[in-house]
Every structure is written in structure tokens, then in C-alpha cells.
Amino acid sequence: GEVCNMINKKYNEFLPSMQSAEDLVAQVDGLSSNIDLLKAGIENEVQRDLNVAVAEFSELKQQLERDTLVLSVLKKLQEFDTAIKEYSTALLEKKYVAAAQQLEKARSTLKMLESRRGFELKILKALGTELTVQTQNMLYHLGEEWQKLAVWRLPPSQESSSLESVMRSELHLRTVPSKEEEIAGPPVASVLQAFAVLGELHTKLKSFGQLLLKYILKPLISYPSLQPCTEEQSDVFILSFKSKEPNLDHSSPMEVFDKIKLVFEVLHKYLLNVPLEQPAEDKKDCRVPLAELLGDMIWEELSDCLIQNCLVNSIPSNSSKLEQYIEVIKSTEEFEKALKNMQFLKGDTTDLLKYARNVNSHFANKKCQDVIVAARNLMTSEIHNTVKITPDSCVALPRLPDPGAGNHVKTPTTSRLLHNDIVTLENETKLSQYTFCLPTCRISSSVEKLMELAYQTLLEATASTDQCCIQLFYSVRNIFQLFYDVVPTYHKENLQKLPQLAAIHHNNCMYIAHHLLTLGHQFRYRLTNILCDGAATFVDLVPGFRRLGMECFLAQMRVQKGEILERLSSARNFSNMDDEENYCAANKAIRQVLHQLKRVGKVWQDVLPVNVYCKAMGTLLNTALSEIVTRIAALEDISAEDADRLYSLCRIMVEEGPQVFTPLPEDDKNKKYQEEVPVYVQKWMTFKELMIILQANLQEIVDQWADGKGPLAAEFSAAEVKSLIRALFQNTERRAAALAKIK
């Protein structure tokens, strides 16, 4: 009613212009008969005043065109008015499709009016506003209807998406139109059709699809215990959930597909089985099933979710179960077929099916992923949990497949240890059983496990398809690349701070390098056929690992040397030892150095291989002795008391130095290494000769020099010996004579 009033009111303003337009039309009729007369006149008296006539004629022609335009505009205004009136009537009768079509008609009329150049009517703005108001009004009515047709009962939004809250979601679908609406035919069709005509269907379906994914489809995929329940009442169909104890952490793809299929069947039957007339201008795809529209909107997200949360978990983790996977592929095909029949899916093989069919490559990817994750966990675990390995330690391994057995080797079950028996190489040369042996030492248990993982993975590779075999081989190489990159950075601080860890890391690297020498060799029959140029080898990684171990250990050695020199720097240069305070400082410095060496000797005990231990301790003790020799040899004046005190300080080093060599936990076994100290300490004899000089008289020194052939000459240069003589003895003729003999 008030719509009409409003329109009438606007039209009243226009009646006068309508009236004048009709008058104009009458005048135009009159004018045109005048034109005929004129024409005759012109023809009769052609020469008279022709210019005037032409001007008058074109002016009249313009007048006529203007009036025709006004007439057609008024006609369009009338069309708009009729459309709006008919729309109002249809809306009251709930004939939604008709109402929507009338609105669209009004819209296209208005568009045409607005497109007339140079003809701006104030009223067009008012009509545009009116149209917007009516469209919103209609969409509001349709929205109300739609909410009655599909009712969501959802848990409060602030709740977490736990199983409990998901259980409370329900979807109610209206099945029978309520009595007063029967005039309008099936309400679902007309409501959705009207949305389509107004171009709003997409938005409505999209939000419906999002709710469907969030509250029904995704929970069914994520929670194995959720079951969809359906209940049909007289005028409504209810979709809800119940929960049952799941037997597994992940449901099988078959179960998930069945649940999802049920949901789509319900939607298809009660809501979406409506062919849609598209708005007139989209004639190209006139009838698109609603199901397909919805399918287009949610399929991609749904299939991603199915792949990530369902198919991925169903990929087997060892090759023996691959055959059973055919079932999964079949049920994926059936699931897609069912969805196509209900028109949710239109294309052929979707990503979902491609994923399932590509199981071999996923198997390899999953296996490689598992291997790398396991390896990474081992690398980031503590270094200091160690195991002892001895020359006859070996990696426990199942029996290797027979070289001739070809591709289809079932992973063997019998286990035998790969022993360091006499290794027979291709050219049949016999090597001693210790050629490829590792010395006894301690390595991190995580590294031993890492090696077992590498062997196991290569073994699995030999029993796999070619593609998988190649991938697994490279993932074993990746394990070692990863170790090389991860361990030094991940454990960086501890490797710098703790000498024991640096030693273990050194052993770990040497242990890995040792195994990499032969690792590819054991699997060569199977791997070389597949990998180009028979590149089934790890030998290229060996130098890198040796370097990694060495660099870390040498860095630790530099730290220890630095501390020794730091401690000795507080010994006041070993000068003026007759001063009590100076003597105490020097004595304390020497005690501290011995204490440090003892501590390091203890933490490396039973960790480093004995030969490495002795070299390392020898180098550190050598650093201390060498520094002491340099300082004493540089003194310019040494009194008799100084000399005695320096001698006693040196004696402490010579007596207690060797005791820091304790490579083995059993003390009686260490004697041998303590006696061999001169072998490992380069400056040992130099130090002993210095002690002799501190106690000797001039003649004894000359004898020790023995014309540059004696033991003293082997350790010191002539200049150094002369300097010591000048420091120790006063300037006498005897001293001058002795100095003359040192050359």
C-alpha cells in the first residue's frame, strides 16, 4: 500500500509534464501537416527565401526528436512502475520467483533510463533508492524463509572445537511446507530459485557450505568416534551425531567415506535436488543443479581434509602392507562415483583419487619422512649417553637378500651380525680382519641408533620398487647430510664448553665415517642396478665427517691450551724465585696446570681411543713444558737460590706430569702409557736437559754440549745455552772459557 502511495506521489509531480507531452504530440501532428504545405510552397517558389526555410526546418526537426525522447522516457517510467506494483503483489502471495523476476525487470528498465546521455532526471535517483529498498526487503523475506528451511543448532561459538561441543551440532531440514504456504509450490525450490534470480544464491550457498564443512564434514573426518545420525519426523529431517568407542586412532578411509556419503545423500534428497533456472542473461548454463554449485564451493577443501586427515594416515609404513591398499583405492573410486551420481562432482578423477592411486610414491615419501624425523630426533638428543664400541662391535642387521633374487625380496627375518670377519674384496685380496676396524672408544648411543636406522632403511630399499628404492637411498644420504648440518650447530655451546662432549662428538664423526666407507658396498647388488653409474656409495661423505670430528676436537684442544697458558701467565715469568711471594705464585700456577690436565685426562678416559688420548694429552702437557722452558730460557739473571727453586718446580712437572695419562679406567693398565710419555711429549727431553743445566757446574754444561754433539745440543741452540750460562754464572774467566766452547 504505502509503496503505491509513494509511487503515486512521485507520479503526481509528473502528471503535468505528461500532460504537456501529450499537448506537444497534438501540436506535432499539426506541425507536420504544415510541413507538407511548406514543402509544396517551397517547390512552387523554390527561389524564395530558401535559407530561412532550411533553418526553420532543422529547428522543427530537433523539436520533434526531443518530444519523441520525452515520450519514450515516460513509457519506460511507466514500465518501471508496473514492475514494482506486480512485484509487491507477488511478494504478498509468496510467489518468490515471480516477485524476483519483476524486480529484475524494474532493474533493467532503470538501467536503460540511466544510460540515456544528456537526459538526467532527478527522479532516477529516487527510483534507484526505491529499487534498492525493495531488493533488500525481498532478500530479507527470502532469508527468513531459508532459515526456516535449513536450521542449524550449533554449540556457542566461544567453545573449543572439542568432541563434546561438536556432538551438539545439528542440522534440521524442513521437509513439508507449512499449510499457508502451499500456494507457492515446494518452498525450497522457489526460495532458492528467487535467490538465483537476484544473483544472491552464491553467497547463501557459500555460507551454508562453510557451516557444513565446519560443523559436520570436517568433524566426521577428524573424530573416528563420531557417527552421523538421521531422524525423520513428520515435517522435518534431523541430522545429528552420536559417539561410539573407536577401535583405532584413525578411522579407515572406507568408514570416513561412508559417513560423508550419508551426509551428501541427506542433503541431496531434502535440500539440493532442485534444478535452477538461471537469470535470463545467463542463458549459457541454464539449468545447473544446486548440488553442483555447492560441490564446486566445498569440494576442494573437503578433499584436502580427506587427504590430510584420512588418506595420509592410511598409507602403510612398510612395504608388506602395500598390497592391501588396493581396497582403499577402490573405495575412493566408489566414493567419487556416488558423489557424481548425486551431481556434487562433475569432473573426472579428482585430486583425492589421484592421491590414493599414487600410493607407491606416498609410501616412499612417508617412509623417507619417518626416517628423517627419526634421524632428527636422534641428532637432537643428548650426546653424553654413550655406548662402548670395540673392534669387534658390529651393527645388528638382518641377513641380506641373495644378490640373484631380483626385485621381489620379502624383507628377510633371520638376523645375523655383520662381523668383521676376513673381508673378501672383489679382487679376492685377503685383508686382515682389523683393516676396517674401529679402535675401542665411546660413542653416543643415539649415533649407534642412527647407524642402525641407516642400515635398516637401506635394507628396506633393497626390498622396494625401483622408485621407492631410489628415494630411500637418497633419504639415507640425507640423514648424514642432516647430521653434518644439524649436530654442530644444535649442540654448539656444549661442544665448546665441555671437553668430554667434544671428544664424544669426535668419536661419533669417526664412527660414521668408518661405516660410510663400506655402507653402500653391502647393498651394491641391489642398488647399483637402479642408481645411475652405480653410484650406490657414501664414500664421498667420508672426508667431510673426518674433518667435522677433527675440527671440533681441535677447537677444544685450543681452548685447553689457552687455559694452560693463561694459568702459567700468573707465574711472574719464573723470575726472582728467591722472593717468597714470586715463588708461591709460580708454584700455584704449576699446581693449577697439573690439576687442569688431570681433570681433562679424567673426562677423556675411556672415551677417546687410546692412541688419540695419548696424542691429545701429550700435546697439552707439551704446551705447558714448552712455555716453562721458554720463560726460564729468557731470564737474564738466575741466582743459586733461584736455580734450586726453579729446579724443584720443574721436578714437580716431571714427576706428576706423566700421572695425568690415564686413558683406561683400570689403573694398572695405565703404567705402560705413563712410561711412554716421552714419545707423546715433544719437548720432554728439552725439559729434562733444562733441569740438568739448572743443577750443573760450568764443566758439566760443556760436557753435555760436547762440541755440539751432546744431548744438550740436541735440545737447545748455542745462543740459548750461552744465554743460560750468562744468567746462571758470574762473569769470570772460567765462564768466558766455557762460553767459547759453545758454538
From TrEMBL:
<keyword id="KW-0813">Transport</keyword>
<comment type="similarity">
    <text>Belongs to the ZW10 family.</text>
</comment>
<keyword id="KW-0007">Acetylation</keyword>
<keyword id="KW-0597">Phosphoprotein</keyword>
<dbReference type="Pfam" id="PF22766">
    <property type="entry name" value="ZW10_C2"/>
</dbReference>
<dbReference type="GO" id="GO:0005789">
    <property type="term" value="C:endoplasmic reticulum membrane"/>
</dbReference>
<feature type="domain" description="Centromere/kinetochore protein zw10 C-terminal">
    <location>
        <begin position="436"/>
        <end position="566"/>
    </location>
</feature>
<dbReference type="Pfam" id="PF20666">
    <property type="entry name" value="ZW10_C"/>
</dbReference>
<dbReference type="InterPro" id="IPR055148">
    <property type="entry name" value="ZW10_C_2"/>
</dbReference>
<dbReference type="GO" id="GO:0051301">
    <property type="term" value="P:cell division"/>
</dbReference>
<keyword id="KW-0995">Kinetochore</keyword>
<keyword id="KW-0132">Cell division</keyword>
<keyword id="KW-0653">Protein transport</keyword>
<keyword id="KW-0931">ER-Golgi transport</keyword>
<dbReference type="GO" id="GO:0015031">
    <property type="term" value="P:protein transport"/>
</dbReference>
<dbReference type="InterPro" id="IPR048343">
    <property type="entry name" value="ZW10_C"/>
</dbReference>
<dbReference type="GO" id="GO:0005819">
    <property type="term" value="C:spindle"/>
</dbReference>
<comment type="subunit">
    <text>Interacts with NBAS and KNTC1/ROD; the interactions are mutually exclusive and indicative for its association in two different vesicle tethering complexes. Component of the RZZ complex composed of KNTC1/ROD, ZW10 and ZWILCH. Component of the NRZ complex composed of NBAS, ZW10 and RINT1/TIP20L; NRZ associates with SNAREs STX18, USE1L, BNIP1/SEC20L and SEC22B (the assembly has been described as syntaxin 18 complex). Interacts directly with RINT1/TIP20L bound to BNIP1/SEC20L. Interacts with C19orf25 and ZWINT. Interacts with ZFYVE1.</text>
</comment>
<dbReference type="InterPro" id="IPR048344">
    <property type="entry name" value="Zw10_middle"/>
</dbReference>
<keyword id="KW-0137">Centromere</keyword>
<keyword id="KW-0131">Cell cycle</keyword>
<feature type="domain" description="Centromere/kinetochore protein zw10 N-terminal">
    <location>
        <begin position="2"/>
        <end position="84"/>
    </location>
</feature>
<feature type="domain" description="ZW10 C-terminal helical">
    <location>
        <begin position="588"/>
        <end position="742"/>
    </location>
</feature>
<dbReference type="InterPro" id="IPR009361">
    <property type="entry name" value="Zw10_N"/>
</dbReference>
<keyword id="KW-0206">Cytoskeleton</keyword>
<dbReference type="InterPro" id="IPR046362">
    <property type="entry name" value="Zw10/DSL1_C_sf"/>
</dbReference>
<keyword id="KW-0256">Endoplasmic reticulum</keyword>
<keyword id="KW-0158">Chromosome</keyword>
<dbReference type="GO" id="GO:0006888">
    <property type="term" value="P:endoplasmic reticulum to Golgi vesicle-mediated transport"/>
</dbReference>
<dbReference type="Pfam" id="PF20665">
    <property type="entry name" value="Zw10_middle"/>
</dbReference>
<dbReference type="GO" id="GO:1990423">
    <property type="term" value="C:RZZ complex"/>
</dbReference>
<keyword id="KW-0472">Membrane</keyword>
<feature type="domain" description="Centromere/kinetochore protein zw10 middle">
    <location>
        <begin position="142"/>
        <end position="379"/>
    </location>
</feature>
<dbReference type="Pfam" id="PF06248">
    <property type="entry name" value="Zw10_N"/>
</dbReference>
<dbReference type="GO" id="GO:0007094">
    <property type="term" value="P:mitotic spindle assembly checkpoint signaling"/>
</dbReference>
<keyword id="KW-0175">Coiled coil</keyword>
<dbReference type="GO" id="GO:0005634">
    <property type="term" value="C:nucleus"/>
</dbReference>
<keyword id="KW-0963">Cytoplasm</keyword>
<keyword id="KW-0498">Mitosis</keyword>
<protein>
    <recommendedName>
        <fullName>Centromere/kinetochore protein zw10 homolog</fullName>
    </recommendedName>
</protein>
